[in-house]
Amino acid sequence: MSTERGAAERIRIQIDRREVGWWLLGFVIAGMLLLVGYRFVGTLVLGLFAYYAARPINRRLAARTGRTKAATVTLFVLVVPFLALLAGLVAAAVGQLQALDLLDPGVYARFVEPYADLSALWNDPQRLFARAQELLREPIVKRGVDTAFGVIGTLGSVFLHTTLVLALVFYLLRDDDRLAAWFRDEVARPGTVLERYLENVDRGLSTAYYGQMLTVIVVMFVAAVVYTGLNLVAPPGLTIPQPVLLAVLTGLATFIPLIGRGIVYTAVLLLLIVQVLGRGELVLLWFPALYYAVTFFGIDSLIRYFVRPYLSGRSLHTGLMLFAYLLGAAIFGWYGVFLAPLLLVGSLEFVRVVFPRLLAGDLGSESPADAARPGAGDAERASPPPTGPSDEETPAPGD
């Protein structure tokens, strides 16, 4: 009998050692993933925002075209217009640089001519190489080279992060149902507290992030109406330039925390003041003053304190959403406006679903009240994805 008990103890110790080894490996993997997530936290939350903002449209398309095609169409319908607008702004900036003759090679030739005879150098490659080495030692040239490499590095970083965001959004849109099904089968079984918590977080984020996208659209519309209306009462020759384009910029500036729209308002205000001072008619300063009052105290207050909290938090407390956006932007920077809803929803659902059961020591059951609680995302889950074979089950090359 004692021999059998000793054998059982040895087996249990051996099993426990194997479990400890696997747990250690799991902690190592989790630590590496957390490190990567910390380094790319802004990119990840931006991709998460884009996914939830695009998901309602994607699911409607997926019911007709399939997951892969729907994800592709949704991605390009949302991203391409933004990239086109950004390219237009860059082209306009390049046009202004050309107007200043900064891209004229003659400008740089005049700078180099005192140091070298360019026509002679082109005919003597060795001399050209030697003169190039001498120029690279000049402080102003070294600063220019460092600046150029800095710009190249910045562009490369932007390209990397943009690619990561697009890839994350595409695969989440295409495979989110399969990922959720695997998670329910292997981790969060139906009816458990963990499943209910994650479902509530998913619904809350869908409401918050989709509302954030709606906020940008509302800002564009309101700004276009206000700018056009101000131009109707503006003095002759003193109008807000390109009101529709300016309204689009105002909407996109909403993504910049705290000061985004203020930058646009201030730039236009300074332009109007300069125009008034250039004409020497100080009595016309009433129009810049009116513009200042309508934009800073009208549009901005309306969006910040009413529209954004309401649209982004229809299932959450409006005041909590307001504090989340303000504090998130102030603490975390540019990505705080995307991270704040995630932190708020995760915390609220933990207090609502998990914390009472922790106090009661009952994490293994699900109360009927929680199971019946409606969510903003129930409509999205009303029609489950098809489980039969489809063209999306066989990935196309490059998927």
Automatic annotation (TrEMBL):
Subcellular location: Membrane
GO CC terms of this entry: membrane
Transmembrane segments: 20-53, 73-94, 147-173, 209-232, 244-277, 289-307, 319-344
Lineage top rank: taxon: Archaea
UniProt membrane topology term: Multi-pass membrane protein
One Pfam family here: AI-2E_transport
Biased composition (Acidic residues): 390-399
Sequence ranges of Low complexity compositional bias: 368-377
Region feature Disordered, mapped onto this chain: 362-399
Chief location category: membrane
UniProtKB keywords: Membrane, Transmembrane, Transmembrane helix
Family: Belongs to the autoinducer-2 exporter (AI-2E) (TC 2.A.86) family.
Protein name: AI-2E family transporter
